[in-house]
Amino acid sequence: MNAVLPSGPLGGALLxxxxxxxxxxxxxxxxxxxLEDKAAVRVVIACDGRGSAEWRRPAPVPGAPDISAxxxxxxxxxxxxxxxxxxxxxxxxxxxxxxxxxxRELALALEQLVEELNPRYILAPFRFDRHPDHMALGRAALSxxxxxxxxAALIEYFxxxxxxxxxxxxxxxxxxxxxxxxxxxxxxxxxxxxxxxxFATQVTRFFPWQTRPVLTEAALRExxxxxxxxxxxxxxxxxxxxxxxxxxxxRGILAxxxxxxxxxxxxxxxxxxxxxx
Length: 277
What we know:
Elements: E1 14-18, H1 23-34, E2 41-47, H2 67-81, E3 89-94, H3 103-117, E4 121-125, H4 132-142, H5 145-148, E5 153-157, E6 180-183, H6 189-196, H7 200-203, H8 217-225, E7 228-231, H9 239-242, H10 247-276
Parallel strand pairs: 1-2, 1-4, 2-3, 4-5
Antiparallel strand pairs: 5-7, 6-7
Helix pairs in contact: 1-6, 2-6, 3-4, 6-8
């Protein structure tokens, strides 16, 4: 089943799998906002938000908020603006940064979820979406029996797309065009931006040691304006079948750029903390 993006009546359930609070809006918020049959949507966040690397404080801070509760509330508010009720949102409760190491537990949780919901569509992160949690969740979705057997159409959404070493600085350019589908956001761009603005922990310097917001203004504008792009491949399509470039090269670029980005973040954090002491 090589599906097209849903827009009108779904004719079945749609399951959105997101690694962290806010990925569901960044990756497919426009699609969700434009759906007619929102009662059939279920959003499941894999991680609890408590252990995100962005929130590893340089020193204990008395009275610091419970980030897990804050981020969940942000997600509920954002999805509410898109027409998704709180009762349609749940979490699996995995600690941030652990999905790759707990792949078997993740697979079992997803299989149980899919058997319970019997979705027609499953939205999950792109299989090469840079962050280890994103890639682990994307791989787990690819391996679901319902996906392999064609009982559910897997649609992969993109969160991390900007990489200097890919054509145009965009990893989506190395996905074969026949597997890319695009949704224009002109009619829902304002809703997606309002939803993204609900994530104060991401769009502001929520803690004083942050050097900048997790999501910059430029990133927010680009995400809200769209278009959103998706990878929709036949069941069981291997990495080499959906990429225009060799798989080893794509993996290598991801590894190099991810390390550089992380090193730059740590350097900025140390500089800021040093000035505060």
